[in-house]
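Session log. Operator J.P. requested a structure for one protein chain; no other inputs attached. Running the standard single-chain path with token output.
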Amino acid sequence: MLIKEGDHRTSRIDLTLAAILSFVAGAVNSAGYFAFGYFSANMTGNVSLISDHISLGQVVIATAFASIVVLFILGAFAASLFIQLGKHNNWQKVYALTLLAEACLLLIVGALDIHGSGPTRGTLIVGMLSFTMGIQNAASTRISTGRVRTTHVSGVATDIGVGLATLWRSHSPDARNATIQRLKLHSATIASFLLGGIVGVASYRAVEGAVFWAASVPLFLLSAKYLKR
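Structure written below.
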């Protein structure tokens, strides 16, 4: 799941990876919003809010949302740079190491949420969460050549609409089968993101920052499975 790339991956491998990572992303995104009122993975909404607050003259708030967007980009940049370095040096476990780094960052976020204080605590935590989501999205996108996207659902929902139209008009069995596999992948992504969000909010209400520690567990288990090889 974290070794094969691009066309060497099967639909089942992509679906399993998408289900795990989108569950984590849904939990992190929803818990972060429930706790602090900021989305850590919804860059479309964050950019729109930057525009809103700038138009209202609320520059400080707009800057806070801009920092979240920048940190998401930096997370994706850092992950992509690390993956390129790993591939250049033939590190077969580079994707496992990338998810391990994300898991460690979630542990730090949980500790900050439980023990941190101050007026900027919420922005700092959501900024770090956004950085981790950038890491995750870059890793899943690169290993699957764009088929698996796990931190947001706008593009995935669009792909479902396009896929349904393609399925409606297609008469080729091979094309229909390929479209059905893509629809299964995208549907699983949205369903897991939704379930993760429900679990994330419910868990934050019960254990607060420890939910981010719990969200790191699937990442630790997944990365450990491949690092042992």
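Operator note: DSSP finds eight helices and no strands in the chain.
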